[in-house]
Amino acid sequence: MRDEGVGVGVGVDGGVGEGPTGEPAREVSVEELYAGCGAALLHHQVPRAGVRRAWLAGPTAAAWWGPGGRPGGPVDVVTAVGPPALLGPVLALAAATSPVPGRLSVEARSAHVVPAPWRQVDPWTWHWMRARRGDVPLAPTPEVVDLGLAHPEEVDAVLDAANPGSFARSDTPGVLTWHGVRRPGPGRPLVAVGALAAQPDGSGHLRGVAVLPGERGRGLGRAVSTSLTRAGLALADVVTLGVYTDNAPALAVYASLGYETVHTFVSGPTSARSSTTAAVPSR
């Protein structure tokens, strides 16, 4: 049973607790979550209609049950942001008043305060990054073609060969357009692709950037990412993406395009469901 707006938090050790600001962890409504939490990912990427429960301790610490999915089906996902001193009581309260989610994404700086039943199995670490209009001049990329939503078989063929683990496919809901590079010559096959997906706030999000193995080292991934970033910044003042922290080549490209890391997450299935789907970098 929900105790809406209760001003008492459950501490990390199971007792009553509150953050160093004196503001207690409490369960809140969806409206209170969006009004009270300033996390960029929440406001750009999380649809309000998908949030079922939320907990808050001031503008910098919050957790919410939200939508998540990958090939294989949906799963309950909790996302948690904030510094450990504030987020610890938030997660403890959430764990004390709700079941174990199928998957958890928590900011890396606070991963050590996750309650034991909610700790992840085989977690991965990734950055949620954002570029702002005007931060870095982006040169035109005439070699990149705006494919729209046409040529789905060709797009999927590149993904199958170059990035088979991609969660973005030709029929992924929310994708606005695919951009790609074609090899000169007979048939002009696609050798690199990437998608721009719509965010709930109207901004764009890069997904599924992939280059065929034999075509790598020619700057095609950078060209596609540049083209998609330009398209995203034509929609809104910001554009976002998710990338694994160990993908050094991609991180170098994105930094050169003006992307900055806003959140670093540790994500993974919990012991409740160790082989299912959830919020991960939007590959």
What this model shows, in words?
This is GNAT family N-acetyltransferase. Pfam families: Acetyltransf_1. InterPro entries: Acyl_CoA_acyltransferase, GNAT_dom. The chain is an alpha+beta fold and 283 residues long. It has two domains: 9-120; 136-257, Aminopeptidase. Helix content is 22%, strand content 30%. It is built from six helices and 16 strands. It has helices at residues 30-36, 40-45, 84-97, 152-162, 220-235, 248-256, and strands spanning 9-10, 16-17, 26-28, 53-56, 62-66, 69-70, 73-74, 77-81, 103-107, 124-132, 144-148, 175-182, 190-198, 204-211, 238-244, 260-269. A twelve-stranded mixed beta sheet has the order 3-4-5-8-9-16-10-15-14-13-12-11, sandwiched between helices. Strands 1-2 form a two-stranded antiparallel sheet. The longest helix is centred in the C-terminal third of the chain and has 16 residues, at 220-235. The protein is elongated, with a radius of gyration of 20 Å. 46% of the residues are buried.
Tally of helical runs? 6
Count of distinct strands: 16
Average pLDDT reading: 88
Shape: elongated
Spatial order of the strands in the main sheet?
A: 3-4-5-8-9-16-10-15-14-13-12-11
Corresponding CATH architecture of the largest domain: 3-Layer(aba) Sandwich
Tally of structural domains: 2
Assign the structural class, choosing from mainly alpha, mainly beta, alpha/beta, alpha+beta, or little secondary structure: alpha+beta
Proportion of residues in β-strands: 25-35%
Largest sheet: 12 strands, mixed
CATH C-level class of the largest domain is: Alpha Beta
What is the CATH topology assignment of the largest domain? Aminopeptidase
Q: What would you give as the CATH superfamily of the largest domain?
A: Gcn5-related N-acetyltransferase (GNAT)
Helix content: 10-25%
